[in-house]
Amino acid sequence: MPEEALQCSEDDGPGDGSLVVPLLAPLAALRGDEAEQQQCGSGGVGWRHPSSASYTQQYLRMAAWLGALFAGYAVQRACCQVGLPYDGLRRIDFLEFFSDATSTALWGAVLGWFVGITCPRRFRWLFSRRRWYAWATLLGTPPVYSAISNVDALKRDLAHLGAWGLPFILLWSSGMAAIAATVVWHIRQVAATRSRADVATYVASRLLLLGCFAGSAAVLRRQGVDMHLHHLYLGWSLALWAELDRPLSAVTLAVGCGIFVQGIGAYSFAPVFQEGCFSSPTAPTLRCDFWAEAPFALRICAAAGPLPSHACT
Fold it and tell me: Which of 166, 212, 233, 253 is deepest in the core (most CB within 10 A)?
């Protein structure tokens, strides 16, 4: 097994580090005493605590990664001001922004760890000028996805499969097949370049994480908890596999992250599970009657945007 296969990622060739975006060059540069530590603990002597400079750079690399995600979020917030998508939140209060920011940071940090963003060689490859297409894709995905969302014929809900129709089913199936093929391609690439133990770790770690969500969904559904799989989670799950130093993997990471920040930026961060939810039909005015054997109180919140004008008697 070549030594470079054990490192965070494959090198991009001689001189690639010199092509790092100038502002981020200090984060990608490796000093001589850090050469052994670029393996991120996969060497034969076990993990060593990094030097102070290297330790700080790990945090700075993660900060740069989160900064890229927040840039995509900012693009989507700007798109909302011009009606992309038309049902997006044009105005949000500080509470919603705080929820968006903390959720983006937490989920983004986990994703960054999975794709190896704190490893020097991985960071140097991904933030190289040669990967301009990946960052253009990340920033371009939110407006493109929002424009597609404005097409009423493409608005469908997984909770109402019977209303999809054959054309949309075929379109949706083609998209899912493309995603599955991309994931399989990543697994095959990992299997071709790494040890069996690494392949097992790569696949099992992601399947266990996604399987935990799927198993929890099955249990909670039986308990009557409502579930809505927002597309931001689908984008995050796709990006989870994109840890390779390959152009297709970089684009996959960018598209997945773009969908992730589009969902948060357009509709704010929304949980998958909600207990005791009441979903009303869409109408300009609604009148609902609730009754029970004992006195009760209701807390009604808008699914998106501010609570509409209302009167209670």
Answer: 253
Mention every residue, 6+ apart, whose C-beta is less than 8 A from residue 67: none
Residue that is written with structure tokens 């039986």 in the block: 222
Q: Output the CA angle 82-86-87, nearest 5 degrees.
A: 130
Helix (H, G, I), strand (E, B) or coil at 226: strand
Q: Which of 202, 216, 262, 240 is nearest to 107 (CA)?
A: 240
Model's pTM, two decimal places?
0.78
Question: Rounded distance, CA 235 to CA 254, Å?
Answer: 10
Instruction: Say if residue 105 is exposed, middle or buried (CB neighbours under 10 Å; 0-12, 13-18, 19+).
Output: middle
Which tokens sit at 152?
């009423």
Residues 196, 216: Cα–Cα separation, whole Å: 29
pLDDT single digits (tens) 266-308: 999 987 777 666 667 667 787 888 888 877 777 777 766 667 7
Burial 184-209 (b: 16+ CB within 10 A, else e): ebbeeebeeebeeebbeebbeebeee
Residues 6+ apart with CB under 8 A from 257: 68, 69, 72, 111, 138, 141, 235, 236, 239
In eight-state DSSP terms, residue 128 is B
Instruction: Name the least confident of 27-36, 207-216, 256-265, 271-280.
Output: 27-36
Q: Please, are residues 104 and 74 in contact by the beta-carbon 8 Å criterion?
A: no
Compute the CA torsion angle 166, 168, 173, 176 (nearest 10 deg): -170
